[in-house]
Every structure is written in structure tokens, then in C-alpha cells.
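Progress report, Aim 2. The chain analyzed during this reporting quarter is listed below.
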Amino acid sequence: MTDVLTVRGGFLALAVLATGLAAGLFYAFSVAVMRGLASTDDRTFVIAMREINIKILNGLFAFSFGGAMVFTLVALGLNTGERTVWWIVAAAVLYAIQLGITFGVNVPLNNALVADGDPEKMTDPHAVRVAFEAKWVRWNHVRTWLCLAAFVSLIGAVAEYGRSL
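Predicted C-alpha cells for the chain:
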């Protein structure tokens, strides 16, 4: 029985960790990165966002961004019938909505930056920035709140899990 509890708790802890990291990343973009880039010139903004979008695709990002959903779903599968289940379901739904926004809005905007060509050779980087910035920032704020809510839901699941021990 102890082994089962350890596995259930372990995946729940991984879900909390990965979701918290994803929420923190989106939060950092909302409160610092995009605000800092807002004060740069158009070409610098486009170059910076393109480089960020290239460099972010790495294993550490995959652990948090993809792992949050995977670990949450595994935790859900291991905790069915428990008092934790509704907290985990809420987290999974909130995070899934965030994924829909990411793949439906933010990723296409990121891809459009690349499709617009080399920023050093752009004739109108202002138009590229205008087509990207406000929409990307607005939807990143939404992603931030969804991830934070998913994180809080998983903390609720941990609290319920602790009560069941």
C-alpha cells in the first residue's frame, strides 16, 4: 500500500512542480519580459522574440510545459475515486484550455515572426511587431491566469492527498 501511495503522491508532486514552473514562465513574460521589450525599437523587439521562441524549445521547457499536462493526467489516473480527483480534474481542464490558447494563438503568432523573414532585412519591422505584440501579450496574460489556477487546483489536490494519509 505504501508503494502505491508513494507513486500517487510522486506524480501529484511532479504535476504541481511542472505546472508551477509553466505558470511562473508565463508570469515572468507577463510582468517582466514583454514589459521590457515594449520599450525597445521595432527591429530589436522582433529579433528578441524570434530568438526567445527558438531558444525556449529545449528539454527544460518540455519538462514544464508538456510535463504539466502529462503528470497531471497520470496523477488523475492514479487518484480516481479519491477526494483529490476533482482538484486534479480542474487542473487538467484549466491547463488544457491554456494549451488550446498556446497552440491556437501564441504559436501561430510565433511562427509568423519566423515567416516574416530575417529581421535585419525587414523593410517594415513596425508592421510585423504590430501584428504580433498586442495579441500575443493579451493571450499570454490569459495563459498565465489559467496556469496559476491549475497550479492552485493541484495544491488543493495535495492538501486533500495529505488528509487521506
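Residues 18 and 64 are 4 Å apart (CA to CA). The radius of gyration is 19 Å. These observations will guide the mutagenesis work planned for the next reporting period.
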